[in-house]
Write a structure and sequence with these properties.
Helix content is 33%, strand content 32%. By secondary structure, it is an alpha+beta fold.
Length: 155
């Protein structure tokens, strides 16, 4: 078998070989960075969906049982508690998963009236890496929504 002249260099690496290796390294590292970034977004999205589901759970329990339920946030511990106000008790404690963190809340807790509307407008911000999402609960109609702050500007 005859070896092509391109690969028979005894003086080092040819410019073509170096360019091919560099191109392979660039393509592979680009894929790793993109995959890492998508992993951050996926983890943050899943954590915010979990919080949104828990907010709706508290809202529905308020309607069904005819008394206030809500969520009390503990940003320092990166957790929140689903609470009942009468009698005052913790229904469930949830630690934010996937490396996402609770950044700030507009109030330490959000309560829902027995008709399902929150006692006040509310928002909480969550983040992972450079990605940030905001969850809001509006007083009019009790809607609970998730916004990606990186894509929307609503200040």
């Amino acid at each position: 078998m005859k070896i092509p002249a391109l690969f028979k260099s005894k003086h080092g690496v040819t410019l073509l070989e170096l360019a091919v290796v560099m191109a392979i390294i660039v393509v592979l590292s680009g894929g790793v960075v993109i995959g890492f970034r998508q992993g951050h977004r996926r983890a943050l999205h899943n954590a915010s969906l979990q919080l949104q589901a828990d907010l709706r759970y508290a809202q529905r329990r308020s309607i069904i049982e005819g008394r206030q339920f809500g969520i009390a946030f503990d940003v320092a511990q990166n957790r929140y508690r689903i609470i009942s106000t009468v009698p005052t008790r913790t229904v469930r404690t949830v630690y934010v998963q996937g490396g996402a963190t609770l950044l700030e809340t507009s109030a330490p807790r959000l309560l829902f009236h027995p008709r399902g509307t929150p006692t006040a407008g509310f928002r909480i911000t969550m983040a992972k890496g450079t990605d940030t999402q905001r969850i809001t609960a509006s007083v009019s109609g009790g809607r609970i929504r998730v916004f990606d702050i990186n894509e929307l500007d609503y200040e």
